[in-house]
Amino acid sequence: MADAITSLVDAVQIFATSAEQSGILATAWLQNMMTNKMARKASRTMTKT
């Protein structure tokens, strides 16, 4: 368990060192999530009609 926490902390530190890059990744991830949600809603709406 301690190993998992250590590697998680390492990952967070690596991620935090490139704040700009992580910001870009977070933005892309959020946009992807939104697009997926909208696509799912749209397909559900289409199947209803």
TrEMBL record:
Domain of life: Eukaryota
UniProt name for this protein: Uncharacterized protein
Source organism per UniProt: Zasmidium cellare ATCC 36951
High-level lineage: Eukaryota, Fungi, Dikarya, Ascomycota, Pezizomycotina
